[in-house]
């Protein structure tokens, strides 16, 4: 069964950068689109970026210019590089592949 494992979260200061990683088991990673989502306390989960199998990338307006999504098919990993972090970006961040179970997510806390 394909599994997603997020890592790279942490406690950072406003303005800092952070790189999240998503390790995907299984050999079909190159065929999957990968989404990055976040869920802040008391709020609904929202998409922040998605990268297609063909490497097309879309970003939520709120993170355009700050976040960069990428993928490495040889390592079956996806990454989300986040810059200029602000306290409102505090959330649990998830990577997601449609039809697969959600991972545990990784907590990002941004302090002012």
Give an overview in words.
This protein has 112 residues and is mainly beta. It has strands spanning 4-7, 10-13, 18-24, 34-39, 46-51, 57-59, 67-72, 77-82, 91-96, 106-111. The radius of gyration is 13 Å and the shape is globular.
* Beta content: over 45%
Class computed from helices, strands and strand pairing = mainly beta
Shape: globular
Rounded to the nearest angstrom, the distance between the terminal CA atoms is: 40 Å
State the share of residues found in helices, binned by percent: under 10%
Tell me the number of strands.
10
Q: Give the integer mean of the pLDDT values.
A: 95
Task: Fill in the keyword field for this structure.
0% helix; 112 residues; mainly beta; six-stranded mixed β-sheet; four-stranded antiparallel β-sheet; single chain
Task: Give the helices and strands, then pairings.
Elements: E1 4-7, E2 10-13, E3 18-24, E4 34-39, E5 46-51, E6 57-59, E7 67-72, E8 77-82, E9 91-96, E10 106-111
Parallel strand pairs: 2-10
Antiparallel strand pairs: 1-3, 3-8, 4-5, 4-9, 5-6, 7-8, 9-10
Brief write-up:
With 112 residues, this protein is mainly β. 0% of the residues lie in helices and 48% in strands.
């Amino acid at each position: 069964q394909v599994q997603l494992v997020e890592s790279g979260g942490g406690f950072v200061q406003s303005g800092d950068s952070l790189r999240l990683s998503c390790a995907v088991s299984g050999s079909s990673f190159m065929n999957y689109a990968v989404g990055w989502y976040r869920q802040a306390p008391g709020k609904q989960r929202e998409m922040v970026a998605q990268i297609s199998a063909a490497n097309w990338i879309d970003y939520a307006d709120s993170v355009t210019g700050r976040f960069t999504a990428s993928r490495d098919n040889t390592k079956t990993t996806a990454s989300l590089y986040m810059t200029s972090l602000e306290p409102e970006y505090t959330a649990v961040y998830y990577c997601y592949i449609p039809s697969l179970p959600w991972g545990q997510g990784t907590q990002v806390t941004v302090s002012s």
